[in-house]
From TrEMBL:
Catalytic activity: alpha-D-glucose 1-phosphate + ATP + H(+) = ADP-alpha-D-glucose + diphosphate
Protein name: Glucose-1-phosphate adenylyltransferase
Family annotation (InterPro entries): ADP-Glc_PPase (IPR011831), ADP_Glu_pyroP_CS (IPR005836), GlgC_bac (IPR023049), GlmU/GlgC-like_hexapep (IPR056818), NTP_transferase_dom (IPR005835), Nucleotide-diphossugar_trans (IPR029044), Trimer_LpxA-like_sf (IPR011004)
Site (Could play a key role in the communication between the regulatory and the substrate sites): Q66, W105
Sequence positions that bind alpha-D-glucose 1-phosphate: Y106, G171, E186, K187, S204
Coiled coil: none
Residue span(s) of domain Nucleotidyl transferase: 14-283
Subunit composition and interactions: Homotetramer.
Species of the source: Stappia sediminis
Top-level taxon in the UniProt lineage: Bacteria
GO biological process: glycogen biosynthetic process
SUPFAM superfamilies found in the cross-reference section: Nucleotide-diphospho-sugar transferases, Trimeric LpxA-like enzymes
Gene, per the UniProt record: glgC
Length: 419
């Protein structure tokens, strides 16, 4: 971050789109929006976008919520209430609330901003940074804003470099040597390569920078178009690519690597398999994502909890954890854990064996339970002697078994075992 990028960040507002359900996470999003899903032992997914904004020097933030937003709003109130109005700082929670008409919901990502134009105008930001609230990554947004200003673009689009084969599932940018976006192609069968990198393509990250006046003009026109779906990826960005100046900003130019990372880290934890893998990856000796650095902290709401405790030291009944992350308030009582990630307040009882378990807050695991490659939703109580991960057919009958062989277990699923 340099002085010029810092100055520009202070003139910007971040608008986080956090209304999506994330249906591919199955029952994990039955009671909460995807941005509110837990990640990494103590944080929520949305904390990464918000922390990036704060660490980039952006102090005016709006969060648009929609689907089952209670837990997300409560998290923002508890963990993100440190902004001070007298320092021109703010975090506004913006639920869909029939602000402009009698429709209850935001009609699309662009409409979520359109319905809050008056709030944006009252803050008078010169630049608007539009963010998705459901990805895991560390990025200095101020560098992206600086490129936007220096290039004179109408929109700058954050892009992630992905192998061409994987790009078939993304919106892909076709760019020239000067980062101009020549075409925007949604989920192409043959993704266009990056200049000079024939094996890579640039996929949209859902991150956009606009000058505020330009964006409000575009949104006003889009709102009046009855044929529009009022979405950035489907309507706004393709229109600007066609009739204006759209610039690509590769993630590698502004990703934050704070010591442990060997390459840019960005994950869409949008499936049960991806969610489980990204959490378990944090238990590696050298994880691909460094969450320990004080140079780029991930801010969150931290519950007041005592330290984790490991008890019993008898043969076959020792509280042991190897290659694992164990959060505050956990009690590992005579259990063996390997490559597990436990959130706050998890309790495991004697003779239980856990391998590859991601346990969300306040889970309790009964005696003699054997769990392998499992995600346990918040508050689940595993009964004594339950075995999961050894019989795929039986697991699929009782729980949600993913294509990758990970079992998602919720309280409702456990209740059905007793009925």
């Amino acid at each position: 971050m340099n002085i010029e990028s810092q100055r520009l960040a202070q003139q910007a507002m971040a608008f986080v789109l956090a209304g999506g359900r994330g249906s591919r996470l199955m029952e994990l999003t039955d009671r909460r929006a995807k941005p509110a899903v837990y990640f990494g032992g103590k944080t929520r997914i949305i904390d990464f976008a918000l922390s990036n904004a704060v660490n980039s020097g952006i102090r005016r933030i709006g969060v648009a919520t929609q689907y089952k937003a209670h837990s997300l709003i409560r998290h923002l109130q508890r963990g993100w209430s440190f902004f001070r109005a007298e320092r021109n700082e703010s975090l506004d929670i913006l639920p869909a609330s029939q602000r402009l008409d009698e429709e209850n919901w935001y009609r699309g990502t662009a409409d979520a901003i359109t319905q809050n134009i008056d709030i944006i105008m009252s803050l008078e930001p010169k630049y608007i940074l539009v963010l998705a609230g459901d990805h895991i990554y560390k990025q200095d947004y101020s560098l992206m804003i600086q490129q936007h200003v220096e290039s004179g673009a109408d929109v700058t689009v954050g892009c992630i470099e992905v192998p061409r084969e994987e790009a078939k599932g993304f919106g892909v940018m076709h760019v020239d040597e000067k980062d101009n976006i020549v075409a925007f192609v949604e989920k192409p069968a043959d993704p266009p390569p990056m200049p000079g990198h024939p094996d890579l393509s640039l996929a949209s990250m859902g991150i956009y920078v606009f000058e505020t006046d330009f964006l409000l003009q575009v949104l006003t026109e889009d709102s009046a178009d009855s044929n529009s779906s009022h979405d950035f990826g489907k309507d706004i960005i393709p229109e600007i690519v066609k009739n204006g100046k759209a610039i690509a900003h590769p993630f590698s130019r502004s990703c934050v690597m704070t010591g442990l990372e060997s390459e840019p880290y960005w994950r869409d934890v949008g499936t049960v398999d991806a969610f489980w893998q990204a959490n378990i990856d944090l238990t590696d000796f050298t994880p691909e994502l460094d969450i320990y650095s004080h140079d780029w902290p991930i801010w969150t709401y931290s519950e007041l909890m005592p330290p984790a405790k490991f008890i019993h030291n008898e043969e076959g009944r020792r509280g042991i954890a190897t290659s694992s992350m164990v959060s505050g308030g956990c009690i590992i009582s005579g259990s063996m854990l390997d490559q597990c990630l436990l959130f706050t307040g998890v309790k495991t009882h004697s003779y239980s064996i856990l391998q590859g378990v991601v346990a969300l807050p306040h889970v309790e695991i009964g005696r003699n339970a054997h769990l392998t490659n499992v995600v346990l939703d918040r508050g689940v109580k595993i009964p004594e002697g339950l075995v999961v991960g050894e019989d795929p057919a039986l697991d699929a009958k009782r729980f949600r078994r993913s294509p990758g062989g990970v079992c998602l277990i919720t309280k409702a699923m456990i209740d059905r075992l007793d009925s």
